[in-house]
Amino acid sequence: MTTRELFYFPVPAEERKARGFAAALLRALSRVLDTLAEKVALVEAPPITEPVLEFHADAAAPEGALYVNGQLVGRVLGVTRL
User: Fold this and answer.
1) Strand pairing partners for 54?
2) Residue 25 and residue 47: Cα distance in Å, rounded?
3) Position 72 confidence tier, pLDDT thresholds 50, 70, 90
4) Is it the case that residue 18 has pLDDT exceeding 80?
5) What's the CA gap between 24 and 60, in Å, rounded?
6) For residue 36, what pLDDT band results from cuts at 50, 70 and 90?
7) Which residue has the higher pLDDT, 29 or 10?
8) Angle at CA 81, nearest 5°, toward 70 and 68?
9) How many Cα atoms are found within 13 Å in the side-chain-facing hemisphere of 24?
10) Cα separation of 80 and 65, whole Å?
11) Cα separation of 65 and 19, whole Å?
12) Which of 6, 26, 54, 58 is the most buried (most CB within 10 A)?
């Protein structure tokens, strides 16, 4: 086992007060952030739904139109059915 010599340097009273204030401030901020995190965690996320895909190759619809959630995203040229 190795032994080491430990040194102790007394901290001046002014510095102890500043450190105590900083520690109290950090503890208070920690409590505030903890409360905020609990409030944010309680917000429900919207359910994730699968996209609705539609393909139209009817005589009445645009040829090869591809829709996702009701919005036209493109056309598949030369394809009449999927």
Assistant:
1) 67
2) 39
3) confident
4) yes
5) 72
6) very high
7) 29
8) 15
9) 6
10) 10
11) 68
12) 54
